[in-house]
């Protein structure tokens, strides 16, 4: 693609991440299950809060992958980031669809989440490919743990949400491993702790807003 075509594509991705309308290349997991089977109003609200947090995580993922891909020095790394970003777009669309089914909304702070994550990803990318890949691997490890906790928290009857989160977790593990395979470095523990603290603020806020 020409630079103009690439710019249009990346701008469209950013716009869909922030305002909605993401398109998935894969079918939504759990479509075979009933929409609200066995869920009361409180359970639907709780499940929606968790899925809104997951959706925000995918908004952040798009920003991170886009910014890191922008400054990646190695074409192989660019290709890996692009592939992972496409699968993250599936996650974004799945979470958005599920929120609509649960009668809820995406986070009103999505522009803020996207902008902040883009800046963080850009900084990680400028630090060098090995640090950038290490950042991807650590991010995906924390997301994997986060999704695993949601599988424990989601109502057992909410099979549609659980199927989505389950597939997301499988993909995140693969993304993290791909980053390691390309030479991702282990981040210093203080950086890991800082990432966890930022994630805690984001998830707590996104659950409600």
Brief summary:
The chain is mostly helical and 209 residues long. The protein has seven helices and no strands. It starts with a helix and ends with a helix.
What would you say this structure looks like, in words?
With 209 residues, the protein is mainly α. Helices cover 77% and strands 0% of the residues. The protein has 7 helices and no strands. Helix 2 packs parallel to helix 4, helix 2 crosses helix 7 and helix 4 packs antiparallel against helix 5. The longest helix has 31 residues.
Percent of sequence in beta strands: under 5%
| Straight-line N-to-C gap | 38 Å
Structural class: mainly alpha
Helix content: over 70%
Features of the shown structure:
7 helices, globular, 209 residues, mainly alpha, 77% helix
Blueprint of the fold:
Elements lengths: L2 H17 L21 H31 L3 H27 L8 H17 L2 H25 L5 H23 L7 H20 L1
């Amino acid at each position: 693609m020409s630079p103009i075509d690439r710019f249009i594509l990346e701008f469209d991705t950013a716009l869909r991440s922030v305002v909605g309308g993401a398109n998935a290349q894969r079918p939504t997991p759990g479509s075979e299950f009933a929409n609200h089977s066995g869920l009361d109003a409180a359970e639907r609200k709780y499940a929606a809060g968790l899925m809104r947090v997951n959706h925000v995580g995918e908004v952040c993922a798009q920003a991170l992958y886009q910014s890191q891909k922008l400054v990646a020095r190695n074409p192989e790394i660019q290709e890996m980031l692009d592939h992972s970003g496409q699968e993250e777009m599936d996650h974004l669309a799945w979470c958005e669809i599920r929120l609509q089914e649960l009668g809820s909304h995406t986070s009103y702070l999505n522009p803020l989440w996207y902008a902040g994550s883009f800046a963080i990803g850009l900084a990680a990318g400028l630090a060098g490919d090995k640090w950038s890949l290490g950042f991807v691997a650590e991010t995906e490890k924390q997301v994997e743990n986060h999704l695993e906790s949601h599988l424990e928290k989601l109502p057992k009857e909410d099979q549609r949400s659980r199927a989505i989160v389950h597939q997301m977790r499988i993909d995140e593990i693969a993304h993290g491993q791909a980053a390691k395979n390309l030479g991702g470095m282990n981040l210093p523990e203080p950086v890991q702790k800082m990432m966890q603290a930022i994630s805690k603020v984001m998830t707590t806020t996104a659950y409600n807003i």
